[in-house]
Amino acid sequence: MTANLGVSLARLGKTVIMVDLDLGGANLHTCLGVKNKHAGVGQLINKQADRLESLIVPTGIDRLFFIPGDSLMPGTANLPYFKKRSIIRELSRLTADYTLLDLGSGSSYNTIDFFLTSSIGLIVTTPETTAVLNAYSFLKTALYRLLYRSFPPRSEERKLITDFVSQKIEGTDTSFRKLIMDLYALKPESGKTAEQKLETFFPKVILNMGSARNDIAVGSKLRQIVRRNLDIELEYIGFVQKHDQISQSIIRRQPLVLMEPGSSFATAVGQVARRIAAKPVPDIPVLYEDDEDLNKLESDYLDQEA
């Protein structure tokens, strides 16, 4: 998805740098058709490179660039915090219209902290119950981490947040809104800080590997549980159907949007790219009361089928 989205954004005239930060299993180079012979993020981690910018590799596609991940270099998957912070600082110095971070699955703090470097975090999930629950778990951990890191070490706020998250909220009457109220009770300015963080945390979701129109409805389940327990909103920006040539595109080391430009897959990823380019950094979350975004995905799907 990262490779194909990067190509689609570049074809819209955007300068894109893709960074492979799945440090335990970096393989974005394979999807792009870039040979695994270039220095990557591991060089920065091990102080063999001073700047992330020096590791940029051309992809052969106009406006699209790449920084490898170095998964074969021991220790890259287990970053100490100060090295992670160094990478995050370097990411902010990259010059591009979009920097796409290809992150590993799961909810490790490395993955979460890289995800939180942007207010336009993309969650790529599939329309299956287990995947939806994993996406919820990721979002819950990300929101906790966001609030936790909004306050100084050893502060009363951090203790309150940690105590709150250690309790089960699913199936109860409590939610992250209760945590905000507790922070207000502790210090009004702390409650305001936390509430502002909640308002700016507005992840976008891509439903990937769909097979039927009914799969789109699965998105409502994730939205419901996120609203009920986390008090945040999601925006669905893509429904991408499963395509039988995906495996072949990886074998051929060519993104499917280039291999099959007229496919439903290429059309759907192109729509995601255009939606991202249309409003890259929303200052205020757009609230969807009646699943308008999911209804739009369904309409797009029906147009493709027609």
Q: Mind explaining what this structure looks like?
A:
The chain has a four-stranded mixed beta sheet, with helices on both faces. A three-stranded parallel beta sheet has the order 5-6-7. Helix 1 packs across helix 13 (264-278), helix 5 (109-115) packs across helix 6 (129-148) and helix 6 (129-148) packs parallel to helix 10 (218-230). It contains 14 helices and seven strands. By secondary structure, it is of the alpha/beta class. Helix content is 47%, strand content 12%. The chain is globular, with a radius of gyration of 20 Å. It has a single domain, classed as P-loop containing nucleotide triphosphate hydrolases (Rossmann fold).
Biggest sheet features: 4 strands, mixed
| Computed Rg | 20 Å
Strand and helix order: HEHHEEHEHEHHHHEHEHHHH
* Uncertain segments: 282-289
What is the 3D form?
A: globular
Which whole number gives the mean pLDDT? 87
